[in-house]
Design brief:
By secondary structure, this protein is mainly α. The chain has a single domain, classed as Growth Hormone, Chain: A, CATH 1.20.1250. 68% of the residues lie in helices and 2% in strands. It has helices spanning 11-31, 41-52, 56-61, 63-78, 80-84, 91-106, 115-132, 147-163, 166-196, 205-222, and strands spanning 135-136, 139-140. It has a two-stranded antiparallel ribbon with strand order 1-2. Strand 1 (135-136) and strand 2 form a beta hairpin. The protein is globular. The model has no long low-confidence stretch (mean pLDDT 92).
Length: 234
């Protein structure tokens, strides 16, 4: 019998979130300071480079986005249980609604405002998204960056070539779909940035709104009986 998954574990939800993440990455790189706010590897590298070359004030600045990312992760661990007591929506659904709210506000912030403000805001919500959505139909997935998806796509292909492992190939193709979704989001957002400037981030509200509807419907209809069930990977 096929396993039943919570709405927040379904693959289409992860693809939509990855699409939105591609948009956030393109937006911050093109319009908000030439950085990627979806993950923190670059910030750690830049902090090390700055400190190592004697640019101490610049190096210490990177503690701000790193701390914002860390705070997002902590809050996304602490909030699910209190939210569960409301018994209306699951934490995942509230989080997507919060992302929509934050990105709507970001679209109103002029490009003349210090880019660090928007960078920190997107760092915060990207961290919460990454920490909240962990497995798509039992497959560990990240929804804000691509490195592991690229690795898993390659592994799936190699295992199929060597062992004709259909299950490994299917898993690899699932990761490939995430990569393509992220890329598509970046392409769409890059084009939007040319026309809409700071409001280009509002394009990312479309996949997030669809995600919110899918999650809310799941909470109300399908998952209500499983409100205490913890998503896989948590």
């Amino acid at each position: 019998m096929k396993k039943e998954y919570l709405a927040c574990e379904r693959r289409e939800v992860f693809i939509l979130l990855m699409f939105a993440a591609g948009m956030m990455g393109a937006y911050t790189f093109i319009l908000r300071g030439g950085v990627f706010c979806n993950a923190q590897t670059a910030n750690f590298v830049m902090m090390g480079v700055s400190l190592g070359t004697g640019k101490f004030s610049q190096g210490l600045y990177y503690l701000i986005p790193i701390t914002a990312y860390f705070a997002g992760m902590i809050l996304s661990e602490l909030l699910p249980n209190p939210v569960k007591r409301i018994h209306l929506f699951r934490w995942d659904t509230y989080l997507v609604a919060f992302e929509i709210f934050v990105l709507f506000i970001v679209g109103w912030i002029p490009l003349t405002v210090n880019h660090h403000v928007v960078q920190v805001m997107i760092n915060f919500i990207a961290s919460m998204q990454y920490n909240t959505f962990r497995q798509a139909e039992s497959i560990p997935m990240a929804t804000t960056f691509c490195t592991n998806h690229l690795r898993q796509t390659g592994l799936g292909l190699i295992h199929y070539i060597k062992k004709r492992d259909i299950k490994a190939l299917s898993k690899g193709l699932a990761h490939l779909s995430m990569l393509l979704s992220f890329l598509a989001g970046g392409i769409v957002e890059a084009a939007a940035c040319l026309w809409l400037q700071e409001r280009a981030i509002w394009i990312a509200l479309l996949p997030l709104l669809v995600t919110f509807i899918l999650l809310a419907c799941g909470d109300i209809k399908e998952d209500h009986r499983d409100f205490q069930k913890i998503p896989s990977g948590h």
